[in-house]
Automatic annotation (TrEMBL):
The chain crosses the membrane at residues 12-36, 190-212, 219-242, 262-282, 303-327, 360-393, 414-437, 503-534, 546-576. Keywords: Glycoprotein, Membrane, Transmembrane, Transmembrane helix. GO terms for cellular component: plasma membrane. GO terms for molecular function: transmembrane transporter activity. This is Choline transporter-like protein. It holds the Pfam family Choline_transpo. The keyword Glycoprotein applies.
Amino acid sequence: MWCHNRKCTDVLCMLLLIAVWFATTILGFIVCGVIENENLEAGNPWRLVNGVDYDGRVCGIDSGVKNEENIYYLPSGAGICIESCPTATDYKQFHCMPGEEPEDDLDAYKKIAAGKCMYHVATTDVFNYCIYDAVLEAAQDVGAATLEQAIAAANNGTSDAVAAGDIPESYFEPDEDNWFDDFTADLYKAIYVIFGFGIGVALGVGFLYLILLRVPGVLFLMTWGIIFLVQLLWLVGGALCVQIGKAWEDDNKHSDMESKGLLYFGYVLIAIGVLFFLFILCMRKRIKLAVGIVKEASKAISAMKIIVLFPVIQSLGVLCFLIPWVIYVVYLASSGEIVTIEMPNGAQVKQFQYTDNMRYAALFLLFSWFWTSQFVVALGQLVVAMAVSMWYFTKEKGSIGNLTVFKAIRVSMWYHSGTCAFGSLIIAIIKTIRAVISYLQKKAAQSGNKLAQAVLCCIQCCMWCLEKCMKFLNKNAYIQTAIYGYSFCKAARKAFFLIARNILRVVAVALVGNYILFIGKLVITVVTTFLAFLVLDSMEDELHGLYGPIIFTFLLAYFVALMFVEVFGMAIYTILQCFVADEEMFAPAERFATGDLSTTINKTNSDAKAAGLNHEGKGNATKVAPKEDGVV
């Protein structure tokens, strides 16, 4: 069997990740109040939802206002907790701060002027907030009017938030008030078209794109066609600039600086075009190899069609962690103490104040999210690499099918979950550091310290670059683990040196692969949306408009395209490493390469040696690589 000689790798990291999950659960139970802890107070999400009165009490939660869930705002901007929102305006009824009840009407209006009372104004209960009906009417009148405009209109005692001349005529057209109802009705009527095309047809278009890439000459024309077009743009653009620059020298409309500037710019473009031509000339064989690798990757994905759905399983896994994690975060965010902050203009605002223990808990929750989400991403990359490498290192490729994907999942999770945990831990640490730096950047911006802002910005840029480099190295390390069964450190080291000694090949594959993936994403999204439009257009009599269904179909198709090209891209890099392993480890008669790669691999041996590639001995390779079923 393919996995007989494999061993569990980086078990300690997997145990550490499990410990983090356990600690996250315990922390969540503490902030939710299931477990009592003197260092962390339990939170209450309603403290984030319900209003806070002038005294810092949460309506419906804190003592003294437990039965008063709604908040009613006074002219001063201060809020008071009341049992129910007034539904009609009554100038004889008042809501006041405790102890400020008016003795008579005159006293009442004095206290209204002082911001301590307010007569009953018609309001609507919106999530326990008493919102003046005038505000809601103003917002409805102008449609897109901002909240500030609506509140200003309410304070002026009118619902005319914007002058009539400023309101577009479209707001007064019939049925405009029901646009949301029409929008949702269209989505409901076209639900089968949206999901059928956005998911089913998009996947079908994706596989048709893979089949198209395997048609002789198509991938060749796509690759060399864009290269020729870029070359033409450099030279033609440069020639036009030179011609126009010379023409400007003879007229009196342009200065000498303008004409020479354009002339020299044209020379630069021509020089870049020449350098680009020389670069392509040197890279031509490697580009040919990259084309072959992309074609083989399309064959691998076509043989294991179910593999493109693995990101859906990943999303479900992330969702299973995300739901309780969000609950823990909400409870933690609501556990702070509400304090009053005096603003420079004399106004007072309420905000949560957190202890150091709460901040440490928040940082730990953030770290656990980064590690878990990156672990799921890493596991997906390893599964794809495992399945594709099993396909490559099998002589009878017709025996490979969807069952191979399930085998790859089993092997990856049983033997190499620890390796995924190790690699994702590095990314999680970097992301956590970047989050801390972002917090410090915000504080530096508030303090106005320009030097600190500049230093932190540089550090943030460096950490961003480090994260990108580590993600690329990790991806290639997982491929090494899939092929050889290495632990993370050894796989990362092997991947680094493999990239170093095959850097031009990696560049060629990156250029060709990214271009093909971009075209694939474009084709899947545009073709699917266009086909959906043709069907929806035939339903025009049943729909109020096509925009809603078309937009949702486009978004679904784009998501499927992203999922598709992510798997395809990982397959491309896996085929590259499998090809290098095949080239370096096996004699010509024993190699697994097929199609274009089988003819390319023999021709590139002499080129590889001339480029300084370090081939490993065949004896060592046959020791670690079975000839028929795969590489261990």
